[in-house]
Amino acid sequence: MEMSFPVDMNLPINLFTILDMILLSMLVVVAIAIVRLNNLFSVVMLFGVYSLLAATWFVSLDAVDVAFTEAAVGAGISTVLMLGAMLLTSRRALPTTPLRHWTALLVVTATGVALFYATYDMPMFGDANSPANSYVGLEYMTRTITDISVPNVVTAVLASYRGFDTFGEVVVVLTAGFGVMLILGIDGTKPGSENSEPAGKKEKPAKNSSVASEAIKSPSNHHVVLGVIAKMLIPLIVVYALYVHFHGDYGPGGGFQAGVIFASAVILYSLIFGMAETRRALPPALVRFCSILGVLIYGGLGLVTIIMGGKFLDYNMLDTHDTIHAQHVGILIIELGVLVTVAGVMLSIYYGFAGRYRDLKDQNW
Amino acid sequence: MLDFIVGHFNYWVVIILMMTGLYVVISTGNLVKKLVGLGIFQTSVFQLYISIGKVVEGRPPILEYLPKKYAKETSDYVKSGGDGAIASAESLVKEPVADVKAALDVASDPLMGIVYSNPLPHVLILTAIVVGVATLAVGLALVVRIREAYNSIEEVQINEAEYKQEAGGS
């Protein structure tokens, strides 16, 4: 290791432990602040901070891929979605009643004490010989060298060894995207009131029926500075997403992260130039098609390998003479499927929420 | 004693965070804040998994050498005295290793003596995070629809509206 820290790893407390403890204390402080606040805007923003701190701790725990995803998803997309939902609902929460407070405290204390008791059986932090670290994980590390020869073992396991699992996850993401589209309207606009209303809810507050899809007019064009900066930033974000995608074999990254980063570039565009412009650039139908296309690419590759005589997602069939090359091609294709689906679903979800915005004037912010 | 505290500190903090999330889910009646609490709970589960996969002195599970260079390096390695590097790599794969530390000390180690953290929890959690935001979006979409139907996202007020509707309908 080139870097050398004045750290004696044999001592129970070293610099890394202290760093971990600082990060964990900050996590606890932020979590408790979230509990105590009733202003939803602060709660949502603190949740973004919480995600970012969690991502930092993940880096300290060597989980660079996870940290990347948490930073992009937790501090990025989910904060955007929460802010969107908050804007559509309300900005303040009612304070907790004493009864609920004490009930919750009782439940939480009892559960917490039981869990604390259970930690006595847990392996020590960082134990290389713990069951979790001894068998499968180590086997993946050693096998990847000869089977797949991709430096990033996380990508190798995600896309090849456990490719079937990942296929399932991608389908779950797509299903969740469908769920949001069905709940909020499939075109990202408010559906017609007759068809979309559930049978039981005939009496709808009149106030909300005035929420019109024309509300999404092109925004005022006085955000000149934002517009110029965004036009410079957006191509860079997209290029970065592609870098993260294609470099996922060699460093932290891959289809999941790249899809989210790509979606965030489009979201930035829509925040500054308005939803109408965004819909013109990337029609909701195209986005919807992409989210399905990715799953089709992924599943299609599985079918191709079956047709070629192997099992589902058995990449070795793609090039029987050079299985390592075949693995690389397979990983690249399914990561592409993941990228397309994740980006498509994230944007569909965003369109779903953004299509419901009431006309929000600048002075109301 | 200090060993024990440092070795379990991560679990304790994860439990505290988990219980904080649970507290928010139970105590607040506001649906958006409830989802934030659920998010804290979810993240704490991620942290539990990742902290179990950590190995002391480990590195991120990204192999230190490029695959193309690997063949040459290994042959050099074998020539320089690390006999049967590949053979023992295979034996390491086939038999479950009881003492990993000892196994890594063996000169013919396929990981070349570098300690990496466990990649498996990372894979599980990486996909779980993306699935998590997708399901969070479904929850938020439901909250938005509830707001449109009941004009509130507070449990108490939703219940009141529901009772009124039932009374008026019958």
Q: Can you give a write-up of this model?
A:
The complex is a heterodimer of chains A (365) and B (170). By secondary structure, chain A is mainly α. Chain A folds into 2 domains: 14-122, NADH-ubiquinone/plastoquinone oxidoreductase chain 6, subunit NuoJ (Four Helix Bundle (Hemerythrin (Met), subunit A)); 153-202 and 211-365, no CATH class. Chain A has helices at 15-36, 40-60, 64-88, 98-118, 131-134, 136-147, 153-161, 163-184, 193-196, 206-209, 224-246, 255-273, 275-281, 284-307, 323-354. The termini of chain A are far apart. Chain B has 170 residues and is mostly helical. Chain B folds into 2 domains: 1-57 and 120-170, Helix Hairpins (Orthogonal Bundle), CATH 1.10.287.3510; 64-110, no CATH class. Chain B is built from 7 helices and no strands. In chain B, helix 1 runs antiparallel to helix 2 (31-53) and helix 2 (31-53) packs antiparallel against helix 6. The longest helix of chain B has 32 residues, at 119-150. The radius of gyration of chain B is 26 Å and the shape is elongated. Chain B starts with a helix and ends with a helix. At the A-B interface, helix 1, helix 2, helix 3, helix 4 and helix 5 of A face helix 1, helix 2, helix 3, helix 4 and helix 5 of B.
Topology of chain A as a string of helices (H) and strands (E): HHHHHHHHHHHHHHH
Measured by residues with Cβ under 8 Å of the partner chain's Cβ, the largest interface is: A-B, 127 and 108 residues
Please tell me how large the radius of gyration of chain A is: 24 Å
Number of helices of chain B: 7
Number of strands of chain B: 0
Largest sheet of chain B: none
Give the tally of structural domains of chain B. 2
Briefly note the structural class of the backbone of chain B. Answer: mainly alpha
Mean pLDDT of chain B: 78
SS element count, helices of chain A: 15
